[in-house]
Amino acid sequence: MGVDVQALKRLVEESGNIVFFGGAGTSTESGIPDFRSAGGLFSPENGAGGSYAPEEILSHDFFMSRPKEFYQFYFSKMIYRDARPGAAHLALAELERRGKLKAVITQNIDGLHQMAGSKEVLELHGSVHRNYCMHCGRFYDLDGMLELARRNPVPRCESCGGIVRPDVVLYQENLNSEVLWKSQALIAGADVLIVAGTSLRVYPAAGLVEFYRGDKMILINTAPTPYDSRADYVIPDSVGKVMHSLVFS
Ligand code: ZN
To answer: Per-residue pLDDT averaged across 209-235, rounded?
Structure first.
């Protein structure tokens, strides 16, 4: 489908109510792979025996029953301490500064939108930058969490010895309802909706797209999604490249 980028630039320039809904493809250019493509099955180096799919390891049941193996996967595959914002993050922060973008809604947990300067960021799946003790609630930032992990393969609270967990939504767990409702309202009220870097196959996050009522949905993804026919413009290209040209060229 040949999409005229100039036409999309006009949509962006004329709107003061753009909402961006993004997934893993927004951060791949920052060196953060989609964990689903992080290497298929994962075999813990010690202890558990056997191999697990990432979706199994990142489930509530697995976390509760095998925290050591969970954290081995988590710290080796989900944490990218040195990742920096890419072209997509920077373009979105600039759009917000210009008063055009209402909010970024993301399925990512890497905190790169905030690092790029975005203020209104709704994190559907939480963030690796927030961690808390499951017993006393004490908060740890990412560096604090990594410090605990250096002392113990399962991070333990300095105050009470409880297990510290990331504020990340695991499989079998519910999304934060306030974040979800706010995201639904933003999408329902959006003039332009940009959906990018997401396969739109993970529910309930993917269902958010259905709340959009307008006729300016721009879908940017390298591979086809189940919502391509719903979108008004489909751009099969990298998120960073397209967002950069929409905002800065
Ligand atoms: Zn504690």
So the answer is: 95
> What is the phi-psi region of residue 4: left when phi exceeds 0, alpha when psi lies from -120 to 50, beta otherwise?
beta
Q: State residue 6 phi and psi, 5-degree precision.
A: -60, -40
Instruction: Look at residue 78 and tell me whether its pLDDT is greater than 80.
Output: yes
Q: Is residue 79 part of a domain?
A: no
Number of domains in the chain: 1
CA of 157 to the centre of ligand 1 (A): 5
- The model's confidence at residue 168, banded by pLDDT at 50, 70 and 90, is very high
CB atoms within 10 A of CB 61: 11
Tens-place pLDDT, residues 170-185: 999 999 999 999 999 9
Does residue 139 sit within a domain? no
pLDDT in tens, 87-102: 999 999 999 999 999 9
pTM for the predicted model, two decimal places = 0.94
What range defines the domain where residue 17 resides?
1-32+85-125+174-249
What are the residue numbers of the active site? 125
Identify the three-state secondary structure at position 82: coil
Q: Residue 110 C-alpha to ligand 1 middle, in angstroms?
A: 24
How far, in Å, are 33, 42, 73, 95, 116 from residue 56 at the CA level? 18, 10, 11, 37, 32
- 137 CA to centre of ligand 1 in angstroms: 6
